[in-house]
Amino acid sequence: MDGSPPIDFVPPTELPLNISPLNSSTPSRFPQNTSIGTLLDEFFLEEWIVKASYEGYFAACAPTHCTFKYVTRNNMLYVATSILGLYGGLTIGLRFIIWNVISLYRLIKKRIRSHRVTA
Known about the structure:
This protein is mainly α. Helices cover 48% and strands 0% of the residues. The chain is built from three helices and no strands. The N and C termini lie far apart (96 Å). The chain crosses the membrane at residues 77-102. Keywords: Membrane, Transmembrane, Transmembrane helix.
């Protein structure tokens, strides 16, 4: 199964190779002189019928819940914009927090000094 041809395989010596259908009375959408390549392109299918019945699926399987998973790979542009966005958000957030902490510290320090002076 390594992809090499079998040792005992002998290709046919008479060309073209005529192969008759298993049951020639069965109607087919392919003419009898259709090439194997065309049949392969069509996956040897006479007819493809898709019948999607969500009601039948839920009746047969009776799932308790449904989930949807979307898997994607992140490219360099997504990573770069995420890092820049994170940096910008942290910069603004920390600037706001530090500004308020310093203002609170100065207010507390001012009140402590004013209590010392009055005492």
